[in-house]
Design brief:
Strand content of chain B: 25-35%
Number of helices of chain A: 17
Strand order of the largest sheet of chain B: 6-9-10-3-11-12
Strand content of chain A: under 5%
CATH class of chain B: Alpha Beta
Strand order of the largest sheet of chain A: 1-4
Number of strands of chain B: 12
Shape of chain A: globular
Oligomer: heterodimer
CATH class of chain A: Mainly Alpha
Shape of chain B: globular
Largest interface: A-B, 45 and 37 residues
CATH architecture of chain A: Orthogonal Bundle
Structural class of chain B: alpha/beta
Helix content of chain A: over 70%
Helix content of chain B: 25-40%
Number of domains of chain B: 1
CATH architecture of chain B: 3-Layer(aba) Sandwich
CATH superfamily of chain B: P-loop containing nucleotide triphosphate hydrolases
Structural class of chain A: mainly alpha
CATH topology of chain B: Rossmann fold
CATH topology of chain A: ABC transporter involved in vitamin B12 uptake, BtuC
Distance between the termini of chain A: 32 Å
Number of strands of chain A: 4
Chain lengths: ~400, ~250
């Protein structure tokens, strides 16, 4: 399901209609892997190469790094950042920024714990309330951004400070809270046996195969060029092999983590919404050129408000996942580096800071890069000044890459 | 003489003390290319905005196929079949040709985009207009200015308009790309569309239009059939000084 868009994206019109006909398969297929050529395909190759390099280095320095146990730990360490990252991707696609997500995640975790631990609200209801609270915060911030035309940077900076204040206010009554509810802890401590992973993978591949075949048949019927079957097969094989390898890795340790399934499922869902629905197309349009989007009748304000609501919801989800993994919520929840980690992850993953270009997968891939660096340096027992400097250098490299791609596109 | 497709009569519009349009008039037939020329501030833009419904005139009498109509909103103009391509094109450079062509009017099944349908229609329409981008699936920002202009014009045709208003379509283009757009204008004419061309460039006005309407200080001052022998007259009408134009040209 990950790159079905490229099935259509790589096929130019029939050669008779082009000035400079391109090989409709091989070159554009390779190009889409390498270059950030379309708004939705961000060229994952550099991220994957970067990740492979990071893993090789840490693997050589400490053999434990590539062990199934550590990679499973790594996966659980990144789920919160990846959840926040999904909101960041959407907001960045719109050409805006949300600096409040760290505070909102902390407030979400606080609300969850206060409701469940102090007030005895059932766990699923408490989760729902935390997510709803995040959406409400997003609604308020989105309305201010869209309604008053205040830069989102300022509005959400106010949010960063204000929501943290509300979090501390709640702590005045509760003090630090230990999460002990089995359902809440189970979010990040449940591991499924192998067959669950294989079954889900088979189902996903089946859906994808049906989808690809249907599109190919429709394109052929409409007289449009299809990519060569072998290209489709290679793509399909990649989309089967990568998750299969991940499953094999997970089953050597504790099993398939529920939290990873949740996050990957949400990435798949949001990726589909972003690339294949009217709503998603309009996000890209507003981020590409808000004025042009408004001119053709797109309701820019409405889209802006919805995206900020999604961003708030994903931030609260990140807070819930953090609370589950850390088994406690303190006053400092959400106030550390999680905001910057999430934004850095998304940018490293290839989503542009300048709006209109990016993919939901950059939240997951970027979180994996940031998480690997952090995890690897922890294993090597590096001092935190060194960790900060290295993380900063990786981020700057990614932004330089982004800026140069953008310049190339603006020819 | 048959009824013109659209005619605007006694159009006046004031912004405070400034009379942008003063009893101006304009009419056009199907299959006709009419150039609207005039110096800056002559009222071209205001007249275009009246035609496209973004400005409501103080007074106006509008006949569409002989029947009186009102254009008080861009949707009124669209409903009549009047499409406008603005100078700034309103394209999203990050999106591909197909997405831009259908921007804001995407085809969908439920809320899921129907890419196949949109791509087929794009490919048909562009082939018909002899527009040949190197791929329909590259971001439009990577295409040449002439091709972007062509796509913007093609987009205005999706609503099956009867009349297309082109606001300075060649202003920012190089020579070869200008020619692409001028050829496209002729093809629009060949499809039986009424084309209103706003331009500062008299050379291209004389190349593609059937008739030239000159606005000056908000009123029509002259109307010439398109013939190069009227070139000096057009210049004189634009500047409002026969003597000066005779000397300079």
């Amino acid at each position: 399901m990950t790159d079905t868009q490229t099935a259509t994206a790589t096929a130019p019109p029939s050669p008779a209609q082009t000035d400079r006909p391109e090989d409709p398969t091989v070159r554009s297929f390779l190009r889409n892997f390498v270059r950030a050529d379309s708004a939705t395909g961000v060229g994952f190759l550099q991220v994957v190469v970067g990740l492979a390099a990071i893993w090789t280095i840490f693997g050589l320095l400490n053999p434990n790094f590539l062990s199934a146990t550590n990679l499973t730990n790594l996966s659980l360490q990144i789920v919160a950042v990846a959840a926040l990252g999904m909101g960041v991707v959407l907001v960045l696609l719109l050409g805006e920024i949300d600096l409040s997500i760290g505070s909102v995640s902390g407030l979400g975790a606080t609300a969850l714990a206060a409701l469940n631990v102090k007030l005895g609200v059932p766990p699923l209801l408490a989760i729902g309330a935390a997510l709803l609270g995040g959406a409400l915060i997003g609604l308020i911030q989105g309305l201010i951004v869209a309604g008053f035309g205040v830069p989102s940077f300022v509005v959400t900076l106010g949010g960063l400070i204000g929501w943290q204040g509300l979090q501390l206010f709640i702590f005045d009554f509760t003090g630090a809270m230990n999460v002990s509810d089995p359902v809440l802890l189970g979010l990040t401590n449940t591991f499924f046996p192998p067959w669950v992973g294989w079954l889900l993978l088979l189902a996903a591949l089946g859906i994808r195969a049906v989808f690809v075949l249907r599109v190919r048949r429709r394109r052929a019927k409409a007289g449009l060029v299809n990519v060569k079957p072998w290209v489709e097969v290679v793509r399909f094989a990649i989309s089967a092999a990568v998750p299969a390898a991940v499953i094999v890795m997970f089953v050597q340790d504790r099993g398939i983590p529920l939290a990873v399934l949740i996050v990957v499922g949400l990435v798949l869902l949001m990726d589909f919404i972003a690339r294949r629905t009217l709503f998603g197309r309009r996000i890209y349009a507003v981020g590409g050129d808000a004025q042009a989007a408004g001119r053709v009748g797109i309701d820019v304000r409405r889209i802006t408000v919805y995206v900020f609501m999604l961003s708030g919801t994903f931030a609260a989800l990140g807070g819930v996942l953090s609370a589950s993994r850390l088994q406690s919520v303190t006053q400092g929840a959400g106030s550390g580096g999680i905001l910057l980690d999430a934004i850095a992850a998304v940018v490293i993953g290839g989503t542009s800071l300048f709006g209109g270009r990016g993919s939901l997968w950059s939240a997951l891939l970027g979180a994996l890069v940031i998480g690997s660096i952090s995890n690897g340096m922890d294993l090597l027992a590096l001092a935190s000044p060194v960790k900060l400097m290295i993380t900063g250098a990786v981020l700057i490299t990614a932004v330089i890459f982004d800026a140069s791609v953008r310049r190339k596109q603006a020819r | 003489m048959t009824e013109p497709l659209v005619s605007f009569r006694h159009v006046s519009k004031s912004y405070g003390a400034v009379r942008a349009l003063d009893d101006a008039s304009f009419s056009i037939d199907a299959g006709e290319v009419v150039a609207l020329v005039g110096d800056n501030g002559a009222g071209k833009s205001t007249l275009v905005k009246v035609m496209s419904g973004t400005v409501v005139p103080d007074t106006a009498e509008i006949l569409f196929e002989g029947k009186p109509v009102r254009i008080h909103h861009p949707n009124d103009a669209t409903a009549l079949g009047i499409a406008t391509v603005y100078q700034d094109l309103a394209l999203c450079n990050n999106l591909d040709v197909v997405a831009n062509l259908f921007l804001g009017h995407e085809r969908s099944q439920g809320s899921v985009l129907d890419e196949v349908d949109m791509e087929r229609e794009t490919s048909d329409l562009l082939a018909e207009l002899a527009i040949r981008p190197r791929s329909l699936r590259v971001p439009i920002g990577s295409l040449s200015g002439g091709q972007r202009q062509s796509v913007a014009i093609a987009r205005s045709l999706l609503g099956k308009p009867r009349m297309v208003i082109l606001d300075e379509p060649t202003a920012a283009l190089g020579l070869a790309q200008k020619q692409q757009v001028l050829d496209l204008i002729k093809r629009l004419q060949g499809r039986g569309l009424a084309v209103v061309l706003i331009s500062h460039n008299l050379a291209e006005v004389f190349e593609v239009s059937d008739r030239i309407e000159v606005l000056r200080l908000g009123s029509n001052v002259a109307s010439y059939p398109c013939d190069v022998e009227h070139h000096d007259d057009v210049v004189a009408a634009i500047t409002g000084s026969r003597l000066v134009s005779a000397r300079t040209s």
